[in-house]
Design a protein that fits this description.
alpha/beta, Endonuclease, Chain A, 3 domains, 16-stranded mixed beta sheet, two-stranded parallel sheet, about 40% helix, globular
Length: about 475
């Protein structure tokens, strides 16, 4: 074996070692891997390259995140306790979406809560001033989590406000992703630490045996002030999101300001992430509040990740598509979902539901565009309408069903977001918000993607796109 990394040992010894490696790894794969294709692939790699295959499987094939999460939960589970208890704001639902509400309740162990106000914010121009103002007015605590948190002009302003809050005695906790906010060097993390602000990097390590964690990212964007006011959605913290200032590579996005009982679920989600990363339990009224009525929106937080929350966002959107009667409209920056989502969207279109998918004409990651082009034909065949959104690149993650139910947050509609990333979405049963988001998406249906557009690609482009499609799970 030319690429075998086993040392030069007698033939019988090498054969025995290879047999032990292949047998041990194969048994582990058979007992732990639910996905048949993944199991067959890993066993095949280990059979062909026993030593190298075993190393690769130990690095990338074992879900240590889920094991760590279960270990932490078994030791102590400080969050999601109050949310499951009876509350005066807990709501049950009747009508078309009652099965969805029941399913998500069982799936997440979080109740559907009423009396919330949810404000839609567009781009950093609309969201950052409100977020910075909330940080300035904080009285007790600030919890913030962001996948990308740059030390640029706007990021620096956030850092200054957070440091000032810390100096005046506010309990500040900042969590940045170990890759998205800089893998080798995170200037934001370094600057916050110099200011004495408690800050952690999610699953970050330069050690080779911790390398599997590089593939598992915290993609959530959350800000909670005093346990009373929350912000969540798809917006990172970077100059590129200030679209009105015409940056070199502008990124348009949608974020949400929330008030009401839903904020407690949001705070518990970010507190769990902090506990997972920093092993510090956040407790008390300064982080978690009981709330007065703020509005009329029913809402619930849905988290997903490769831990104990595996596939929960995907299951929620699948059930919502199943219940659609008239219309499903989805806006996503990257569209390379798995076969289950593809099949459900196609079936909805075939039974007469108007299905619209809005994707950027050109995203900031070309390989994702290539894979999408190679993967989208079955939906066009089923009658799904695919719309291309003109620049600037739109990073919004929005889903509306029948102009009555909305699903918003950090999760893209790709396999990475649905299976590998730690994501957070919010389901909202509110016609007013759903209609506003639906109308917003309607104004972004700039041009329609057709079979003709796909057919006119050159053979070389088709080969490139097909090759990119093979990498869909990791793009």
């Amino acid at each position: 074996m030319p690429f075998d990394i086993l040392p030069q040992l007698p033939f019988l010894t090498v054969t025995i070692i290879r047999f032990i490696l292949v047998s041990t790894v194969s048994l582990h794969i058979l007992l732990t891997k639910r996905n048949t294709a993944s199991a067959i692939g890993w066993i095949g790699i280990c059979v062909l390259m026993p030593a190298l295959g075993t190393i690769l499987y130990l690095m990338f094939g074992i879900n240590r995140v889920r094991r760590l999460a279960k270990k932490l939960i078994s030791g102590r589970s400080p969050y999601r306790t109050s949310s499951t208890q009876a509350s005066s704001w807990n709501r049950e639902l009747d009508g078309q979406f009652a099965p969805l509400a029941l399913m998500v309740s069982k799936l997440t162990s979080r109740p559907l809560v009423g009396s919330n106000t949810i404000q839609c914010l567009h781009d950093g121009d609309g969201a950052y001033p409100l977020m910075l103002e909330a940080i300035e007015q904080a009285e007790k605590s600030i919890l913030i989590c962001s996948y990308i948190f740059r030390n640029d002009t706007i990021g620096g302003l956030f850092i200054e406000k957070l440091a000032a809050a810390h100096r005046r005695g506010i309990q500040v906790r900042v969590l940045v992703d170990g890759v998205g906010s800089g893998y080798f060097i995170s200037e934001t993390y370094k600057r916050l630490k110099r200011e004495g602000v408690p800050c952690a990097r999610f699953m970050h390590s330069l050690l080779p045996w911790r390398m599997p964690f590089i593939n598992l990212r915290n993609h959530r964007k959350i800000l909670v002030i005093d346990g009373k006011t929350g912000f969540m959605g798809g917006l990172n913290i970077a100059d590129e999101n200030l679209v009105s200032q015409k940056p070199a590579n502008p990124v348009s996005d949608t974020h949400f300001k929330v008030e009401g009982p839903i904020v407690r679920q949001l705070a518990e989600a970010i507190a769990w992430d902090w506990f997972f990363s920093a092993h510090e339990t956040l407790t008390g009224d300064i982080y978690f509040q009981e709330h007065d009525a703020k509005g009329n929106a029913l809402a619930r937080i849905v988290t997903a990740g490769p831990d104990t929350d595996l596939e929960k966002i995907e299951f929620t959107l699948l059930q919502a598509i199943t219940l659609a009667r008239k219309q499903v409209r989805i806006m996503t920056p990257y569209f390379i979902p798995g076969s289950r989502v593809m099949s459900e969207l196609a079936l909805a279109a075939l039974r007469g539901v108007m299905v619209d998918i809005l994707i950027p004409k050109k995203s900031n990651h070309p390989p994702l565009d290539w894979a999408c082009a190679a993967n989208i034909s079955p939906l066009l065949n089923a009658g799904v309408r695919v719309w291309l959104v003109d620049p600037p690149f739109n990073h919004s993650k929005l889903m509306v069903v029948d102009r009555a139910w909305a699903f918003v947050g950090s999760s893209n509609l790709d396999i990475r977001s649905l299976r590998l990333n730690f994501e957070i979405n919010m389901e909202v049963y509110n016609t007013e918000l759903a209609t506003r988001l639906d109308d917003f998406m309607d104004t972004h249906r700039h041009s329609r993607l057709t079979h003709h557009d796909l057919d006119k690609r050159s053979p070389l482009i088709k080969i490139r796109d097909a090759a990119a499609r093979l990498c869909m799970p990791y793009l």
